[in-house]
Amino acid sequence: MTDRVLAIDGGNSKTALALVDVDGRVLAQVRGPGASPQNVGVARSVDVFEGMAREAARRAGLAADEPIATHTAAYLAGADLPKEEDDLRAAIEARGWSATTVVGNDTFALLRAGTPDGIGVAVVCGAGINCVAVAPDGRTHRFPALGRISGDWGGGGHLGSEALWLAVRAEDGRGEPTALLDAVVAHYGAATLAEVVERLHFGEVEFDPHALCPVLFEVAAAGDAVARAVVDRLVEEVVLLARVSLARLGLLGEAVDVVLGGGVLTGTGGVVVDAVDARLRVDAPAVRVRVVDVPPVVGAALLGLDALGAAPGAEVRLRTAYEAPVAAVG
C-alpha cells in the first residue's frame, strides 16, 4: 500500500477531512458537520468521522477491504486534556482506519498550518479561545481551554453574549450609552431590547451569541467606545496567551511565528491582528505575527506527513493542491 495520511480537523461548527498520499497529493477531501466530543460525545464524534473517512476512501477509489491510510492524524476541538486525547485515540483506533493514530487538540494543526515546521505559538479564537506553543526542542505549552472554569476569556459566544449584555444595560440605564443598543435591536428586528429579552426568555427566538460577534466588531469599527473596549480586551487576551506561552518556553527573544486563526480573529481584518502585533512586540520584538492562510486540516495532514517522514516537496505540493474546491457531505 502506498503510504497515506487520513487528516481530520474537527471543529465545533464543522469538520474537514483530507486523504493525502506521502508525496502530498490530495486523494480526497470531505467536509462534514461539527462533531466536537464535548458537544456530541465521543461515540457520535467518531461516527461522524467514520462516515467521512469511508466517503474519502470511496472518492479515492480504494477497495472496501483496503486500509484507508497508514496513519491517522486527528486534531480535534474538545481534545483539551490528555484523558480526552486518549479516549478519542482508542475510539478511533477501534475503527481500523490505519496502522497508527495520533490525536491532539486542533490548535496544534493550526500551528502547523501556519508555519513551515510547527514551531512557535498558535492562538485560535472561534467558538472558544485557545493557545498552544511548541519550542524547537519539542517542548510544548498549552492551556486547558475549558472555558471560564479554566480561566478563559474570549471566543465568539462569549463576545456575542457580552454585546447583548452591554446593549441591554444601555437600554435600561445600568450601563453606558452605546451604539450596540440600536445594532442589536436591528439584528433581532425588534422595537426594543426589552422585547428581545422577553422573546429569548420564552424561547420564541433562538439565542445564537456567535451571530452577535460580527455586530460587536462592526460597532467597534465605527468608533463606539463601549464596543471598542471589548475588542481591546480581546486583543489583551490574545497577547497574554501568546506572551505567557513564549515566556514558559523561553522564546520571548526568539524569531518565532505567532499564528492567529479562527473565525473571530480572521474575520476582523487588521483591527485585532495589527493591535496584537504591536503589543506583543513590546516584550517579544523578534516574533512574526501572521494569520493562517490555509485551512487547519492542512496542518493536520502536514503533521501526519511529518510522522511518516515525508520528503520536503510533499508540503509544497499539499499546500498548493489544497486550494481546490471541496465537496460537502452530511
Highlighted features:
disordered C terminus; 330 residues; single chain; globular; 47% helix; 13 helices; 18% strand; alpha/beta; 5-stranded mixed beta sheet; Nucleotidyltransferase, domain 5
Q: Mind explaining what this structure looks like?
A:
The chain has helices at 37-40, 42-59, 82-93, 106-113, 156-172, 180-188, 193-201, 209-221, 225-248, 263-266, 270-283, 296-308, 313-321, and strands at residues 4-10, 14-21, 26-33, 71-76, 100-105, 120-125, 129-134, 140-142, 257-261, 288-291. The protein is α/β, with parallel strands linked by helices and 330 residues long. It has 2 domains: 4-114 and 294-321, ATPase, nucleotide binding domain (Nucleotidyltransferase, domain 5); 117-292, ATPase, nucleotide binding domain (Nucleotidyltransferase, domain 5), CATH 3.30.420.40. The strands form 2 sheets. It has a 5-stranded mixed sheet with strand order 3-2-1-4-5, sandwiched between helices. The protein has a 5-stranded mixed sheet with strand order 8-7-6-9-10, sandwiched between helices. Helix 5 crosses helix 6, helix 5 packs across helix 8 and helix 6 (180-188) packs across helix 8 (209-221).
